[in-house]
Write a structure and sequence with these properties.
The chain is mainly alpha-helical. It has 2 domains: about 5-55, no CATH class; about 65-235, no CATH class. About 60% of the residues lie in helices and about 5% in strands. The chain has a 3-stranded antiparallel β-sheet.
């Protein structure tokens, strides 16, 4: 079966598939094993509606230990990259890993104007990292670096496609919060500081939050959360 026909088959039959499942079950569709590069191109080309059907990053196909280990690795990486992280920044990280940027999208017109302003005001810097992984096949794409490579419309499209299709859950978020609590020794803040912020955060209903003033001053973050595969596929096509 040609790849395009297999693509049509899974869409017509509403088959839910993620990257791991894609390679795990590919032979059951009598498809010649294809390279990861083709998966990236496939994910970049499909429409938002198709992404809803495919459920790109369903955690249902992974076990709890795998998810926990992934988050531990993410926390370790971010603690090393951003040693001034505060409890607020840690909760923001796991919130984005589980829910992506849907909370920002809201009114797409307003979100677009806000993004265009931030894009225009952020100085381009080709020496910065383009993307930082946050787990769940998601990353923070750095506007300063990205604007040396892609037009604003491209980045915003990736953000919208991700925000409209990524679906987390409070169960996943709760599990990641427990993982964070077990690994706060990775960070420079104290147990008391973490407990105080966690108590406030819980009392507020686990909201989306901004970065802490300490983090903002130290790292001047300007990014959008997108599926990692989207910009990788764009680079492949170029």
């Amino acid at each position: 079966m040609p790849f395009c026909d297999w693509h049509r088959y899974i869409l017509q039959n509403n088959i839910i598939i993620s990257r791991d499942c894609f390679f795990k079950h590919i032979h059951s569709f009598s498809v010649t094993l294809i390279a990861d590069i083709e998966y990236e191109q496939f994910m970049c080309s499909i429409t938002i509606t198709e992404m809803r059907i495919l459920n790109f990053v369903s955690r249902e196909e992974t076990n709890d230990n795998t998810s926990m280990n992934d988050m531990v690795e993410i926390l370790q990486m971010h603690a090393k990259m951003y040693p001034k992280m505060q409890p607020q920044d840690c909760f923001k990280l796991i919130y984005q890993a589980d829910f992506a940027g849907g909370h920002i999208l809201g009114d797409e017109g307003i979100a677009l104007r806000y993004f265009e302003q931030e894009y225009a005001e952020t100085p381009a810097n080709e020496n910065e990292e383009l993307a930082v992984e946050i787990g769940n096949h998601l990353c923070r794409i750095n506007i300063a670096k990205a604007k040396t490579l892609y037009p604003a419309a491209q980045i915003f499209d990736w953000f919208c496609r991700t925000a409209e299709t990524h679906r987390g859950s409070m169960a996943e978020f709760s599990a990641d919060m427990k993982t964070l609590k077990k690994h706060i020794s990775l960070f420079s803040f104290t147990q008391e500081e973490f407990d105080a912020y966690a108590s406030w955060y819980r009392s507020e209903g686990y909201p989306s939050v901004h970065h802490s003033s300490v983090y903002q001053e130290a790292y001047n973050p300007h990014y959008r959360v997108i599926y990692t595969g989207l910009w990788k596929a764009a680079d492949i096509e170029d």
